Amino acid sequence: MIPVAKPWLGEEEAAAAREAILSGWVTQGPRVAEFEGAFAAWCGARHACAVSSCTTGLHMALKAVGVAHGDVVVTVSHSFIATANAVRHCGAEPAFVDVDPVTFNMDPDALERFLDEDCAHYGGAVYHAFSERGGLPAESPLALLPPEQTGRVAAIMPVHQLGMPCDMARILDIAARYGLPVVEDAACAAGSELSCDGGKTFAPVGRPHGAAACFSFHPRKILTTGDGGMITTADAGSDSAYRLYRQHGMSVSDAVRHSARKVTIEEYVLTGYNYRMTDVQAAMGIVQLGKLKAMVAERRRIMARYADGLSGLPWLTLPQDPPWGRWNAMSYPVRLAPGAPEGQHALMQRLLDAGIATRPGVMNAHTEAPYRTALALPQSEAARAHVVLLPIFNTMTDEQVDAVVREVRRGH
After folding, report:
1. N or C: which end of the chain has fewer CB within 10 A?
2. Distances (CA, A) of 242 to 31, 236, 237, 318, 342
3. CATH 2.40.30.110 is the classification of domain 11-288
């Protein structure tokens, strides 16, 4: 069986984890701090804070920019449900806009239309009433509040879907016009690069370009620590807030307390969470980060081999870099055109019968029970229905790539 994805882990990661375990310090400690420093240096970020997952990172980043109970965050439905859930964790509600059909990312035109046409503007703020776009889901925290206490648009959260960089130049310009902070869901985007100056210069996703960028280190991602995440920011105050939130609001970290020469008793200055990364995870992450450049280069080589093998099929659209981005090729999404010889499910089943695992296009939160309303997002729904994710992973051989190509092309 050719899997759709597979983490690249080996003896180096195992040795690093073993060393951390035998050190006696296995929770958040010196290796977490080392990983944070190395990741910040990789991205060119001023600050990086390790957390237990990208979801917890998004929750804290949204809180740090002021998202509160009753607020609204503009984002996309076309993402893993954790994106929407992070908004709900703040007592807020996601307002979904559609995606661009080529990149599967937030469509800046759809964002602008939403803010212009579906929102009211007064008192220096932006407000949205869900009654005008399908109503509120029954589970929404806003459904329990009086309408006059809800609806303030507090942030914009684009998603670098499948690692493909968003058109951040346009999104940031729109956000600035409305005075809204931007939190980047960069769960899949470690190693991707984007340009905000028309392709003249490129910088890693995570510099960050908005107020914060949040990464995932789940095994499905290129860089993995088993699970875990990272928040990058240029703002020292936000970074300090993340560090309080992630450790129960404790005023003194474990490392400081254990290295103190005088008795040090911590205080708990706010209601926090247990969102910490362990030193065992961080030890793996340090090794993985050292491989990231090579991993991205190899995935882009596999992507090019796929492109050579699958080009020329009029019913299949292949992914490619947008003008503003250099993609890390975390996944390989191909889109079936109208009139394709077989549909998404039939193609996936045929490949599975041949020993090749695939996945459908990215899910849509607005079609799942917790977020379901009458809202229609045509491009998001079409992407889910007509995209197939083909296998791509760092140890994938040329023979395996060619086997996938042959099976996709077979009979067509």
Report:
1. N
2. 18, 10, 9, 39, 48
3. no
Enumerate the domain spans of the chain: 11-288, 293-409
Q: 293-409 adopts what CATH topology?
A: Aspartate Aminotransferase, domain 1 (3.90.1150)
C-alpha separations of 137 from 95, 194, 222, 228, 372 in Å: 11, 35, 34, 30, 6
Find the length of the chain: 412
Under the banding of pLDDT at 50, 70 and 90, the label for residue 260 is: low
pTM: 0.95
* Rounded-to-integer distance, Cα 68 and Cα 156, Å: 14
214 three-class SS: strand
391 upstream amide cis, omega within 30 of 0: no
The tens digit of pLDDT for each residue in 63-103 reads: 999 999 999 999 999 999 999 999 999 999 999 999 999 99
Residues 369-379, mean pLDDT to the nearest whole number: 96
* Block residue for tokens 């200055």: 269
Summarize pLDDT for 34-49 with one digit per residue, the tens. 999 999 999 999 999 9
Q: How far apart are CA 330 and CA 220, in angstroms?
A: 9
